[in-house]
UniProtKB/TrEMBL annotation:
Lineage: Eukaryota, Metazoa, Chordata, Craniata, Vertebrata
Pfam families membership: Fndc10 (PF17742)
Gene name linked to the record: Fndc10
Natural source organism: Steatornis caripensis
Keywords of the record: Membrane, Transmembrane, Transmembrane helix
Protein name, entry field: FND10 protein
Tagged with keyword Transmembrane: yes
Residue ranges crossing the lipid bilayer per the database entry: 98-123
Length: 133
């Protein structure tokens, strides 16, 4: 029941339901891995309390594939059940901003070129007309 909600600001909200059975639950262990060359991710081996049902990852990197696993921790002698894992990828926000900026600049250049062409046409038509003989 582990769900990763990717938010618009680049953060990720992890949510999960209570494990079955809940008796003897001492907490959760959250482990992370990622597919990226130079990415550092600050949630490796995070210990969470037994009442915790969500966790916010404030800064996830764009274009990186994340795999987060949540494992319930029980009091001994009960063995730990297998971890639940979720995979996700965050859309790169910076790339979206660059595309918007380039579109705006490109539109402005097109408008300026239209004005220049109209000005050249006006000058050619009105100021450079041949003298009547």
């Amino acid at each position: 029941s582990l769900v990763a909600n990717v938010l618009r600001n680049g953060s990720v909200l992890l949510q999960w339901g209570p494990p079955r059975p809940a008796a003897g639950l001492r907490g959760f262990a959250l482990n992370c891995s990622w597919d990226g060359t130079y990415t550092r991710f600050p949630c490796d081996s995070v210990e969470l309390g037994a009442a915790c049902r969500d966790y916010l990852l404030p800064e996830a990197h764009g274009s990186v594939r994340y795999r987060l696993c949540l494992q319930p921790r029980y009091a001994p002698p009960r063995p730990a059940p297998p971890a639940q894992c979720v995979e996700f990828r965050v859309e790169p926000a910076a790339m979206r901003d660059i595309v918007v900026a380039m579109t705006a600049v490109g539109g402005s250049i097109c408008v300026m070129l239209v004005f220049i062409c109209l000005l050249v046409a006006y000058i050619t038509e009105n100021l450079m007309s041949p003298a009547l003989a």
